[in-house]
UniProtKB/TrEMBL annotation:
InterPro entries: PC4_C
A single MF term (Gene Ontology): DNA binding
Organism in which the protein naturally occurs: Gehongia tenuis
The protein's name: Transcriptional coactivator p15 (PC4) C-terminal domain-containing protein
Residue ranges constituting the Transcriptional coactivator p15 (PC4) C-terminal domain according to the UniProt record: 20-67
Signal peptide: none
Top-level taxon of origin: Bacteria
GO biological process: regulation of DNA-templated transcription
Length: 74
């Protein structure tokens, strides 16, 4: 199986911190040297391990933001 390389190119925000110290974060991440994408996932303390997450393009983030604005205004 191919190794997956990731690099956090910009830390955006920590969304939450659990009692165990895991953080849920949104960052810009480059996967295997590709153009960075928005990435939401959980990390163990010191980022030794990461959980499953979701990556979004800039266009997808804009669409998500608009959908959330509509949802939260209802």
């Amino acid at each position: 199986m191919k190794d997956i390389q990731s690099e956090i190119t910009k830390e955006i925000a920590v969304l939450s911190v659990s009692e165990s110290g895991y953080t849920k974060e949104i960052n810009l991440v480059s996967w295997n040297g590709a153009e960075p994408k928005y990435d939401i996932r959980s990390f163990s303390p010191n980022r030794e391990k990461c959980g499953k997450g979701i990556t979004l393009t800039g266009t997808e983030v804009k669409m998500l933001l608009e959908a959330l604005k509509k949802e939260l205004n209802n």
